Amino acid sequence: MTTDINACAEKQGTDTLRPWSELMRDLTAVDTWIVHRAIEILNDQVIKHGPKLASPQDVKDYLRLQLINEQREVFAVVFMDTQNRVIAYEPLFFGTIHQTSVYPRVIVQRAMSLNAASMILAHNHPSGSTQPSDADKQLTNRLKSLLESIDVRVLDHFIIGEEGTFSFAEHGLLF
Q: Which of 134, 133, 173 has the alpha carbon at shortest distance from 157?
């Protein structure tokens, strides 16, 4: 998708796309409302119809829309059923510009109450870097272990930043 977007940008006479935060800064109040409304509509369609997020790119695009404009770190979970259809997208923890506290008990309780079979973890790095910290890696493995004990699979953990999107699964970090 990024290649297609960059190709369109080149046709329009620009070399590359500007970072999301830069684009959002240049928008008028009406433009910002339109972007947020588009995200709400997309979210309603995904949640209402419960589609499968068929590919890692679908998930990346969806989570990027949800988290890229956050000014502080947000940890969210996409809860899914046995067919990998979205049950709910929930931003659960909100932190500062460089960290957030995540409470595994809350995630386990929410997974149980939604009867989730699997989930995708996600958080943003407002700094722009998508590289996982040691704390990110430890938390992911701890959550994966805890959730396995109640038969809920962690399919991936994405970090969203201006540099792009990092996938723990694609980098072999979900042991």
A: 173
DSSP secondary structure of 43-75: HHHHHHH--B--SHHHHHHHHHHHHTT-SS-EE
Q: How far is CA 140 from CA 56, 84, 119, 132, 171, in A?
A: 18, 20, 12, 10, 13
Instruction: List beta partners, residue 167.
Output: 158
* Structural domains of the chain, ranges and CATH numbers in brackets: 53-167 (3.40.140.10)
Tell me the C-alpha distance between 69 and 87, whole Å. 23
pTM of the model: 0.73
pLDDT in tens, 58-75: 889 889 989 988 999 999
